[in-house]
């Protein structure tokens, strides 16, 4: 429902007289009732009114139906009475809680929804039935009920707040729903992981509304309480459904509608109804399921429920879920004559169970078997719909629940209805309502001090303009503990109802902090623990609400806190306005690396601590003391607040104190900001505002100066160094770069003859972003022959606080090419964890980091691992069984090749034996030389998988199961110089008894020789000239390498950097870092550089060359000169003379004309300056004119290329 201010005023003007005609206050002494009327008022405070029932019904006749176009701008308004004495205007639509055919049979039963025209967050649901007029109104002050004063009449009514309702003889709140029942019911909604929930609830552009067919039966006991008539029972049904649909629609976008033949399920006589033990809720569960199926059939409804009178065992009970064969197993017991109260307190709870929602309370003595361990987010009894509010003795948070679902309940309900079993029945209708969007200002992982108040604040927007309400709820699960005595991650803070101002919540409530009166419902953490809170936003769309949420997670630090304000905590504190006073606080280790609060803000309240209009200092160092200027304002209710800058915690001094107005002329001076915690150099000049305030006519001149040393070359300048009190000026600091981090402390001094000199602190912390001296050291660019691993190093620079390193197989450092990366290195060296592959080209680079952010990665260095040629030999006698007792077993390999050993490795030794720590493993050559590989290590390990190599970087590590090369106990170099030919033996000696034997499963013998590959030879690397904005083909006249063993197509140029002011093309395809071209590409005239037309005179790229044998040329630079007198290659020149492009600039289309026939295959391409292909034409023998339409292209510069076997021509094309 939408309305305008004009419509609102019109309705109020036109309807107020009508409202006065059907509502009137009346004293109870003037209430005259029929003889059969019964008064059953349970409210302790209420307003008595008379109602012209016929006039009200007449006013409602024109109300449009919900979900219609007319409902979007309803022209019908009624006034509803409030307990305080006023009438409030509501725009109205008619709601439909019954199937249309059922509603047509009972036209005297009408239900409505209203939205206040005076207060946007106030809504109402009300009913006109044979039982009279009933209403429930949601207000910021709580739920309001309007209902008949007595039965058997429709004239007199009462209005009261739900909080004044007194229910006697409450039954046990137990509803028989526990974790075991939840598991039996396949409670799939509970505890989906956060990523799934995020995807599920942010995937649709609008929120759908799901409607379920409700089969609602009743016992004769219930019907007798409603007059014993079908109309009376259906009236009570509609009162209940109108209220739960208000909750369901706004909370979870779900609604219930009575089935077409629901009146067949109403039993009027307890003596003839089919139910036994109607006062025992658990006894009705199975009976109702059987009853519904027998009367209307299993497929005639989506969810079943039954109303009965008071129960002796429960308030309600559920053991079945929506859309399953047990969907009719739900009971609501009515222990109050007010069906609306029961609907809100019991029915909304029980039906949520039928959507697989568990209890939200965390401790309820006597019925802990009903604890839902995966939903217990509320301390004690809890206070939301799924709580046991009022039923948990000394663990009660409140005595009546609030009409909204806890965040854990929302998650489960919405998932079950939209994604779970609940999505398999009912009907889903699209809507135009969008979810609000949350703006969360926090990142997870920060710390706060213990026993210190804190505040959370976020915002949200809604494109539909709905009236948003907000709530912050704790989202932690822990052990069952009494309220106020948490352990582990048990919940600390109760939930409060959503409100328009709920986007900001103080923990504990601000009034408790101000009055120093704390209770067990909100407990600050007193030990190290996790803290998670959900920011929940509801748009309160009256037809179909959207609820969204986002978490923030942080921790409390037991080594920090409590953070406390120490100033003005004693009675009798008086400050004078305009004075310069000291504020003290206990830092309590909050500057430690975890909490890391280096600065605080100091604020002043003059209303007892509720608001803080005066910022005395912002961003002052968190050192426990600061001098502040006291505003010249008189108050008896001053409070000081010191809060963390960049964190969420704060404290307020304990009591109000006095500020008196200045008694004599004077001035106050402030510096803003007082601290600049991070100035990244080089920076623009810093501007500091110097403000003064004069008291009682003080008009002397202040002489300003800055005390403190500036870095060399830096300057400090006042816009005016003389200032009349009451005026302001600016101090400009131009600080020149220095090395590393520097803290500069200054005083701004003001001198007035005959008046005390004023000094105001100013702190500037600078950090240089100059990393120009950073350079890579080892392995140097072009290093070859590295085996397995090497250490990396670079020179440290003062401005870098940490370094990041990347090692990859491509200079692009694309994720799939990275071998290893490490961040936050405090030293300028690194030893990699991963081993290098042989015969492989690697690249490494480093970038510096500090609090100003990361610098650029340095250009990479390239290195290559050794090129080796290996021969592998394997045994034929495996497996070899190993005895449990001391013994020796052997496996042999006969090597037929002859040669002199230069490198030998033992590969893939796999032994299973428990434990391997009783084994010795050695290798014996044909000449009898024995080398010990493994010697009785790795206790309690039953498996060895290892390879042995003298050049491996590490000895064996336990457990040895990854097959990586490790160094043997003795060096394999003992075999160098021996002949490979003959019988080699792997000997396994069981030194001590094991635990059951084992076996030698695998091993191998590898002889390797290092191969020195012949490097290619650089024949030509000459500067090429290119006209501005044009292109040129790079031919062998400018770039060529040769190799004795490799063909041109096997000589690869790998790009390490690309041109800065142009683009490199291979066969018309733009090349990037890590791409390659070959010598054959150059030989075939298929490598082209195109300049971007910028005002530059040089360009270039870097590359290295490798061949297929492992030979390579380290990083080289190819230089390009941008010269308007440069000539293109001979092949390109002949093409250049044949091609004309017009018009240029072009707007809609461009003509490309060829003055002669182009022989062979030709390609015409249009590309962006970044190389992206936009258009292409290919043909044999291009001639004449060809049209390219460019009207759809954005304005800008493009590259037009014509490629043939004879070369490539590139033209710049401007599109207007």
UniProtKB/TrEMBL annotation:
One of its GO terms (molecular function) is metalloendopeptidase activity. GO terms for biological process: anatomical structure morphogenesis; proteolysis. Residues 1-19 form the signal peptide. Residues 858-1015 form the P/Homo B domain. Residues 210-364 form the Peptidase M12B domain. Keywords: Glycoprotein, Hydrolase, Protease, Repeat, Signal. InterPro entries: CSPG_rpt, FRAS1_ECM, Galactose-bd-like_sf, Ig-like_fold, MetalloPept_cat_dom_sf, P_dom, Peptidase_M12B, Secre_tail. Transmembrane segments: none annotated. Gene3D superfamilies: Collagenase (Catalytic Domain) (3.40.390.10), Galactose-binding domain-like (2.60.120.260), Immunoglobulins (2.60.40.10). This is T9SS type A sorting domain-containing protein. It comes from Phaeodactylibacter luteus.
């Amino acid at each position: 429902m939408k309305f305008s201010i004009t419509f609102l005023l019109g309705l109020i003007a036109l309807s107020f007289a009508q409202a006065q005609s059907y509502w009137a206050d009346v004293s109870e002494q003037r209430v005259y009732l029929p003889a059969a009327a019964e008064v059953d008022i349970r409210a302790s405070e209420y307003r008595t009114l008379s109602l012209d029932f016929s006039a009200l019904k007449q006013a409602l006749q024109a109300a449009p139906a919900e979900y219609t176009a007319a409902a979007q701008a309803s022209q019908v308004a009624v006034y509803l009475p409030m307990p305080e004495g006023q009438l409030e205007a509501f725009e109205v639509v008619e709601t439909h809680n019954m199937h249309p055919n059922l509603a047509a049979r009972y036209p005297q039963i009408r239900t409505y929804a209203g939205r206040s025209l005076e207060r946007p967050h106030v809504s109402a649901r009300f009913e006109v039935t044979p039982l009279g007029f009933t209403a429930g109104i949601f207000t910021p002050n709580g739920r309001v009920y309007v209902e008949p004063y007595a039965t058997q009449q429709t004239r007199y009514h009462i209005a009261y707040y739900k909080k004044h309702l007194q229910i006697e003889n409450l039954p046990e709140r137990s509803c028989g729903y526990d974790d075991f029942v939840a598991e039996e019911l396949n409670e799939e909604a509970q505890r989906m992981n956060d990523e799934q929930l995020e995807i599920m609830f942010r995937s649709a552009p609008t929120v759908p509304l799901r409607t379920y067919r409700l089969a609602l039966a009743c016992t004769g006991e219930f019907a007798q309480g409603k007059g014993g008539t079908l109309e009376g029972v259906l009236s009570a049904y509609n009162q209940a459904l109108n209220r739960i649909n208000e909750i369901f629609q706004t909370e979870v976008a779900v609604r219930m509608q009575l089935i077409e033949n629901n009146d067949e399920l109403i039993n009027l006589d307890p003596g003839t109804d089919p139910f036994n033990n109607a006062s025992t809720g658990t006894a009705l569960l199975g009976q109702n399921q059987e009853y519904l199926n027998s009367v209307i059939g299993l497929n005639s409804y989506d969810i079943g429920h039954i109303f009965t009178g008071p129960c002796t065992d429960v308030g309600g009970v559920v053991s079945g879920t929506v859309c399953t064969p047990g969907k009719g197993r739900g009971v609501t017991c009515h222990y109050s004559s007010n069906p609306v109260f029961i609907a809100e307190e019991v029915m909304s709870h029980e039906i949520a169970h039928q959507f697989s929602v568990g209890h939200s309370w965390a401790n309820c003595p006597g019925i802990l078997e009903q604890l839902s361990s995966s939903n217990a987010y509320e301390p004690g009894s809890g206070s939301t719909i799924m709580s046991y509010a009022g039923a948990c003795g000394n663990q009660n948070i409140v005595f009546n629940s609030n009409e909204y679902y806890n965040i854990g309940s929302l998650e489960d309900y919405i998932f079950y209805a939209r994604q779970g079993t609940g999505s398999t029945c009912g009907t889903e209708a699209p809507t135009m309502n969008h979810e609000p969007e949350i703006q969360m200002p926090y990142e997870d992982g920060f710390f706060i001090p213990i026993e210190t108040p804190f505040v959370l604040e976020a915002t949200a927007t809604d494109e539909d303009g709905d009236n948003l309400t907000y709530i912050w709820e704790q989202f932690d699960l822990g052990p069952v503990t009494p309220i106020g005595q948490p352990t582990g991650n048990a919940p600390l803070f109760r939930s409060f109802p959503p409100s328009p101002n709920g986007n900001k919540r103080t923990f504990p409530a601000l009034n408790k902090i101000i009055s120093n009166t704390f209770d067990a419902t909100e407990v600050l953490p007193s030990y190290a623990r996790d803290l998670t809170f959900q920011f929940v936003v509801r748009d309160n769309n009256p037809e179909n609400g959207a609820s969204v949420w986002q978490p923030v997670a942080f921790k409390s630090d037991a080594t920090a806190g409590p953070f406390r304000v120490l100033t003005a905590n004693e009675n009798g504190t008086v400050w004078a306005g305009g004075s310069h006073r000291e504020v003290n606080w206990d830092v309590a280790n909050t500057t430690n690396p975890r909490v890391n609060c280096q600065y605080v803000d100091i604020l002043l309240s003059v209303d007892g601590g509720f608001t803080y209009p005066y910022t005395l200092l912002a961003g002052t160092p968190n050192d426990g003391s600061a001098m502040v200027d006291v505003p010249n304002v008189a108050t008896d209710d001053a409070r000081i607040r010191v809060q963390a800058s960049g964190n969420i915690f704060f404290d307020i001094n304990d009591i109000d104190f006095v500020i008196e107005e200045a008694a004599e002329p004077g001035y106050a001076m402030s510096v803003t900001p007082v601290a600049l915690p991070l100035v990244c150099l080089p920076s623009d000049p810093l501007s500091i505002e110097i403000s003064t305030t004069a008291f009682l006519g003080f008009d002397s001149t202040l002489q300003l100066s800055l005390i403190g040393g500036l870095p060399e070359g830096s300057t400090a300048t006042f816009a005016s160094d003389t200032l009349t009190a009451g005026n302001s000026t600016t101090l400009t600091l131009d600080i020149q770069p220095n090395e590393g981090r520097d803290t500069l402390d200054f005083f701004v001094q003001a001198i007035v003859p005959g008046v005390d000199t004023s000094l105001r602190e100013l702190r500037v912390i600078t950090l240089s972003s100059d990393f120009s001296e950073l350079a890579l050291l080892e392995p140097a660019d072009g290093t070859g022959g590295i085996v397995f691993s090497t250490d990396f190093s670079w020179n440290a620079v003062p401005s870098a606080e940490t370094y990041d390193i990347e090692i990859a197989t491509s200079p692009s450092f694309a994720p799939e090419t990275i071998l290893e990366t490490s961040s936050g290195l405090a030293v300028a060296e690194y030893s990699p964890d991963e081993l290098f592959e042989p015969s492989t080209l690697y690249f490494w680079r480093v970038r510096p980091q500090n609090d100003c952010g990361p610098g650029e990665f340095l250009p990479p260095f390239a290195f290559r691992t050794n090129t080796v040629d290996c021969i592998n030999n394997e045994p034929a006698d495996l497996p070899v069984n190993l005895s449990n007792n001391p013994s020796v077993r052997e496996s042999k390999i006969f090597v037929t090749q002859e040669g002199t050993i230069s490198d030998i490795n033992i590969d893939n030794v796999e032994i299973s034996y428990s434990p391997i720590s009783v084994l010795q493993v050695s290798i014996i050559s044909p000449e009898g030389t024995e080398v010990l590989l493994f010697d009785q290590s790795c206790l309690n390990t039953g498996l060895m998988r290892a390879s042995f190599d003298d050049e491996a970087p590490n000895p064996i590590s336990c457990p040895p199961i990854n097959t990586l090369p490790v160094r043997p106990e003795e060096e394999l170099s003992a075999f160098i110089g021996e002949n490979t030919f003959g019988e080699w033996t792997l000997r396994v000696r069981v030194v001590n008894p094991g635990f059951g034997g084992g076996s030698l499963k695998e091993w191998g013998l590898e002889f390797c020789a290092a191969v020195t590959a012949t490097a290619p030879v650089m024949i030509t690397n000459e500067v090429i000239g290119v006209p501005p904005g044009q292109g040129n083909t790079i031919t062998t006249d400018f770039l060529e390498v040769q190799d004795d063993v490799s063909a041109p197509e096997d000589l690869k140029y790998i790009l390490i950097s690309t041109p800065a002011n142009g683009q490199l093309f291979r066969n018309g395809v733009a090349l990037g870092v890590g791409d390659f071209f070959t010598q054959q590409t150059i030989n075939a005239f298929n490598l082209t550089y195109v300049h971007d037309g910028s005002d530059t005179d040089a360009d270039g790229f870097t590359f290295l060359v490798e061949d297929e044998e492992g030979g390579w040329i380290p990083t080289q630079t190819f230089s390009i000169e941008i010269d308007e007198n440069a000539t293109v290659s001979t092949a390109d020149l002949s093409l250049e003379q044949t091609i004309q492009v017009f018009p240029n600039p072009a707007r809609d289309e461009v003509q490309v004309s060829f003055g002669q026939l182009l022989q062979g295959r030709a390609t015409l391409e249009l590309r962006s300056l970044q190389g992206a292909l936009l258009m292409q034409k290919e043909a044999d023998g291009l001639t004449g004119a060809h049209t390219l339409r460019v009207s759809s292209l954005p304005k800008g510069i493009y590259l037009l290329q014509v490629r043939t076997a004879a070369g490539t021509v590139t033209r710049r094309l401007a599109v207007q």
